[in-house]
Amino acid sequence: MTFLSVPAAADALEALSSKSTRAKKAVVDADGVPVLIGAVVAPSKECMQGECGQALQGHATRALANICGGMSALILYLGELSQSPRLAAPVADIIGALAYSLMVFEQEEPFDATQIEDILVILLKPRDNKLVQERVLEAMASLYGNNYLSRWLNHAEAKKVFIGLITMATADVQEYLIISLTSLCCDGVGIWEAIGKREGIQLLISLLGLSSEQHQEYAVQLLAILTDQVDDSKWAITAAGGIPPLVQLLEMGSQNAREDAAHVLWNLCCHSEDIRACVESAGGVPAFLWLLKSGGPKGQGASAKALTKLVRTADSATINQLLALLLGDSPSSKAHIIRVLGHVLTMASQKDLVQKGAAANKGLRSLVQVLNSSNEETQEYAASVLADLFSTRQDICDSLATDEIVHPCMKLLTSNTQVIATQSARALGALSRPTKTKSTNKMSYIAEGDVKPLIKLAKTSSIDAAETAVAALANLLSDPHIAAEALAEDVVSALTRVLGEGTSEGKKNASRALHQLLKHFPVGDVLTGNAQCRFAVLALVDSLNAMDMDETDAADALEVIALLARTKQSVNFTYPPWSALAEVPSSLEPLVRCLAEGPPPVQDMAIEILSRLCGDQPVALGDLLVARSRSIGSLANRIMNSTSLEVRVGGTALLICAAKEHKQQAMEALDVSGYLKALIYALVEMMKQNSSCCSLEIEVRTPRGYMERTVFQEGDEFEVPDPATVLGGTVALWLLSIISSFHAKNKLTVMEAGGVEALTEKLACYTSNPQAEFEDTEGIWISALLLAILFQDANVVLSPATMRIIPSLALLLRSDEIIDRYFAAQAMASLVCNGSKGMKLSIANSGAVSGIITLIGYIESDMPNLVALSEEFSLVRNPDQVVLEHLFEIEDVRVGSTARKTIPLLVDLLRPIPDRPGAPPTAVRILTRIADGSDTNKLIMAEAGALDALTKYLSLSPQDSTEASISELLRILFSNPDLLRYEASASSLNQLVAVLRLGSRNARLSAARALHELFDAENIRDSDLARQAVQPLVDMLNAASESELEASLVALIKLFSGNSLKAALLADVEGDPLESVYRILSSTSSLELKSNAAQLCFVLFGNTKFRANPIASECIQPLISLMLSDANAAVESGVCAFERLLDDEQQVELAAAYDIVDLLVGLVSGSNHQLTEACISALIKLGKDRTPHKLDMVKAGIIDNCLELLPVAPSSLCSSIAELFRILTNSSAIAKSSAAAKIVEPLFMVLLRPDFSMWGQHSALQALVNILEKPQSLATLKLTPSQVIEPLISFLESPSQAIQQLGTELLSHLLAQEHFQQDITTKNAVVPLVQLAGIGILNLQQTAIKSLENISISWPKAVADAGGIFEACEGYYSR
């Protein structure tokens, strides 16, 4: 095959393998891969050149790629094949084919180049076969030189240089470099470590002196890479003596070597002044100047960069050399020369720059002349350098701002090349910048129309160019003529654009330019329309973000914003410009930054602007101020130290915003700042001065949006105080209120600062002449609010001024404005809560109560903002109630004239008032407090119509709690018996019964208690309406609470007291009251409640139906338990109920089973006659016809107990005792006993009592008969006949036949005794006995005749004289 046919064959194989899988397989099977590998390296082996060899390599490589599946797969295949122990082709050929593949690889997708790198590094080792090593280096060079592959590798450029050095190095150096490259590739280290640090630097420096240019280029290129990346390498190069050879390379090296050497030296100069001095002393400046003249563009650029670092003095020689280069023919590009010359000129003295003839002045004027060059690049660089020079050297601008300098710059403003015009504008801007010595009209020689190109440039599409033009205009516009021309050319649109889109520097200049315009013209002429004005305000504020607070730029921008903020609505503006800030809360942050970080003048302007937003953005302001805690301290500082009242008031308003939303953080920030105490003193002084700032436009909203809606508004509209005037005293009061409410120590500080005295004077001034024009009306109620807060501290209350302020507060309570009255009441509330009794008495005597009463009844929905404000300052919700309750806790107030004057006012409030729906409940509570414990006050209330009013109020079905309160008040009133005579008392019964039926539990409880008092009146108790209370009261017996049970029990007891017939009503009610009572008696309730239940039992057991109820017998045991208790009332009620139960014989039988005799006998003693009588009655019922029980009673000592009581017992009790004795002596065994004998004498003594009832007389006589009919008893009788017979004679004449019978019978027993017959007193009995003998009652007649017979033995004549014989005969015959 001829050589020429080889590329064609490779082409054919490429074509076949690209289209047919079978073809690929056939090539592989025919051992075509080694052949194709050989074809790739054949041109280099056979020294083939030209297109034929390139075509062969290309076709063979692409055929291999088709077989392997792409170039990436081919590269990996060749890499792996090169390491295979069974090679398909010579290893050198495989690596050569890999090198070629790596060189021509062009895929964009990611490829793991490190895998191939690792293979090549393994292959790169000392070998016997030099060819293999060369092919490995060739492959690595292709890898690092391929732009597609090298980007996936670390340090690819450095590795590429390493390969170049290895290729050209001697054997020993080559081995060192191979180790370094391997380390760089495999050990994960940097170039500095891989090359061996200083040792490697010394090696590279040594290579700089070799004659081979290529070798020099590689060495200096690696040094350039090292100095770019590793600072230590710079000192290592210097220490290794590398600077002289590098400088020498600048003059004698190849172009690439010179450029890299310049770059290395520039890196060295930038790193250290010492190294820079070394470069300079090594002849660096002349060498760089030579390179600047003779080097290529890259070399000139590197030289210029290095010279700007190297040259530190503006010596004439250097300037002249540069001028020679600038004005000479070579180099053709003067840009880098201009740059270096500009750098040198910046270091020249002011004298050299402005003095004609000096080298520096020549250089500067040469740059100005270059502006007229036809080369645009040269013009651009000259303009840029001049701009830099004038910007950095302000000291020369005044002297050089001449026609000769300015006009060339002005001329270039019309250049078609924008960048040239821009640089010229920058130069002009620098020349015209104001200085301290000459700040205005610097460019007065600029003719009309000269600034138009500058304005045109400011409007160009390039924002950079526009910024540059605006920077110049910002300086030129100080001239009023230039400003007028610029305004006419619509320069404002350019300024606003830069404000919106420019850099921070551009925004500063635009702000300055706008400031200059606003100095000359009204805001409406400069900014036309709301949109432009709004944009300008927001953009100016935004520009503050990048400004240094200590520079004039920030102050200028703030001055513009402040000027706009002062602007009011006009023809051009339908709303104030500053309102834009309120619409964009984020715009406030830069202003807050100025406040936090700026110097005092900047802070003052920030305060002036921000304070106007207090009304619209209080929350946002508060958040931002607290976020920058330094701003809190700044505000305090300016409030204390600023000479401007506007600033002090505005700062106070801002602090209110911060403290209102974040009280804790704001107060902590003030505390940390150390200004808190001094601030309080300053605020007190502001409050004292109470000066108005008529220029202010600050709207201070009270906390929690008080001004959003108030009780004073009509419909949906309300008035906001005119923000054009804010009183310093008002905002000071607000802030003092907030500060004082935070901590007790702050209240004391306000007091120490004279705050209480100042408030006293303020209120006294107002209240002494309330009709006069008073400018600070809002400050009045805020003053009262502050007092309320201060008086929360007892130490402040002790202030001497406190007593003096009470009359003013009392007068303020009479104000027409409810807000004044409300906070005056709050101050009073704080005083009564923390003051002494004497202070409370002073308040009561001040007449404040009548003013307080005018506040009663306004519900929270009527004044929600006042209530919310009170809560914010931890004040009470209802100051009126608090004051009245505390005052009327004092007995002196409650019973004094204040209470008497107050009662009618409160009674008037009981009647419905449409606009004060909350008044009646409060009035009820206060009246309750006044009435309790004072019968006089109760009468005054009744005279004032309280009973009628309360009854009518109840009829309106008020809330449950109010019903309960009214009922309780009625209870207290009815506890005075004199009030029960009022007709209104009876009429209230109906409403109380209605409450009892339909009210809540609490209301029913109070109503039941009121009825208990009301039932003291018999006429009410016996009325038909009273009967309607029975059922609901019985229903209450099923309640769970003891209080309800007790109330219903006592009411029922009172209702039925003294009227057993009416108790029958209880038998007809729904439910079983006895069951309820039994439940109480058998429960664990209190003894008092059980006692009341027993009393109701007493009432119930008066009815046969209840006594017959099976539950009645269940009550016996609980009643006995009561009788065993230690409480006298419980014992008495238990005994009474038990005694009443024994009216039922069946219950007596059941009760007899209980061992109760001893208990009852034991209770028959003491001074409780009602208890004793009940016990005796029970014993009587138990002993009747039950001899064993009688014996038990005697045994228990009942006779002795009764005999002890007889001398002092009332008549009724004596009657009961006589009846008990009768029952006992019915037993013959008892009648014969010695105990019975003791009864005789006391009974005779009782019979002598004139108040002794007939029932008692009967019982006593029967008992005596029972005893004295026994002879042994007569024998022991110690009374004289006269003592016995005399009382008996009176009974013979008793209207009761039974008593006559018993008296006669007893007398007959006595007259059986001889000494009784013989006693002279016996004669007195003859006549009554004769009369009884004449009565037709047989038993009585017989007994009388028997007695006459006994008397006639001793006194026959007396009997005969009285007609006794006749009556005896009559009796005899009748028998």
Automatic annotation (TrEMBL):
GO terms for molecular function: microtubule binding. PROSITE patterns: ARM_REPEAT (PS50176). The keyword Repeat applies. SUPFAM superfamilies: ARM repeat (SSF48371). Keywords: Repeat. One of its GO terms (biological process) is anisotropic cell growth. Coiled coil: none annotated. ARM repeats lie at residues 241-283, 901-945. The keyword Repeat applies. GO terms for cellular component: cellulose synthase complex. This is C2 domain-containing protein.
